[in-house]
Amino acid sequence: MPALQSSTAKKVIVHRYEREPVLGYVHPSSYLQPDFVEILLANGVLQRIPYLDIKQISFVKDFDSSKGQSEQRIFQSRPKLEGLWVRLDFRDGDFQEGVLANNLALSEATGFTVTPPNATGNTQRIFVPRTALSALTVLAVMGLKASKKPREKGSSGQQSLFGDEQPPAT
């Protein structure tokens, strides 16, 4: 069992179906195990929670969720982040929107990590196990706009095929 280092441990709130949330710390590179999540409780006990019991894991700035802005479940306007704008439908009928990385190398076999609509609030990221979902819908593919260089004044925007040379005088 790997020890969690406090310098890299992240604060999380594990929201469970029909149970109280669990507050603790996870090591970002090793908390996801094949059948469960490992979380270090404040009293130093390492707890293993099966994916079937977990609705979502919120990576938070502070355990007191009443601080700061209220948490949003949907985007008020089109997201500014690059990635997949998704709607997560939970098996209990609840839902959540977020932005999922558009990179298969970053996806986990056990679930999805999304950026919530209000990433400046207390919840910075959310991990949702696949077993918690009844559906995942891609609402849009969000990309960065291509930057356009401003044209120089007097430029037609086309390159000269033969250069600016004048034909020889006869």
The average pLDDT score comes to: 83
Give the number of helices. Answer: 0
Total number of beta strands? 10
Please indicate the percent range of residues in DSSP E strands (runs of 2 or more): 35-45%
Radius of gyration: 24 Å
What is the general shape? elongated
Model regions low in confidence, pLDDT < 50 over at least 5 residues: 1-6
Characterize the biggest β-sheet: 10 strands, antiparallel
Helix content: under 10%
Distance between the termini: 89 Å
General description of the model:
By secondary structure, the chain is mostly beta strands. It has one domain. The chain contains no helices and 10 strands. The chain has strands spanning 10-16, 22-26, 36-41, 46-50, 54-60, 83-90, 95-100, 111-115, 123-129, 133-142. It has a 10-stranded antiparallel sheet with strand order 4-3-2-1-5-9-8-7-6-10, with no helix packed on it. It is elongated, with a radius of gyration of 24 Å.
How are the SSEs placed, and which strands pair?
Blueprint: E1 10-16, E2 22-26, E3 36-41, E4 46-50, E5 54-60, E6 83-90, E7 95-100, E8 111-115, E9 123-129, E10 133-142
Antiparallel strand pairs: 1-2, 1-5, 2-3, 3-4, 5-9, 6-7, 6-10, 7-8, 8-9
Looking at this protein, list some descriptive labels:
170 residues; mainly beta; 10-stranded antiparallel β-sheet; disordered N terminus
How would you summarize what this structure contains?
The protein has 170 residues and is mostly beta strands. It has strands at residues 10-16, 22-26, 36-41, 46-50, 54-60, 83-90, 95-100, 111-115, 123-129, 133-142. The protein is built from no helices and 10 strands.
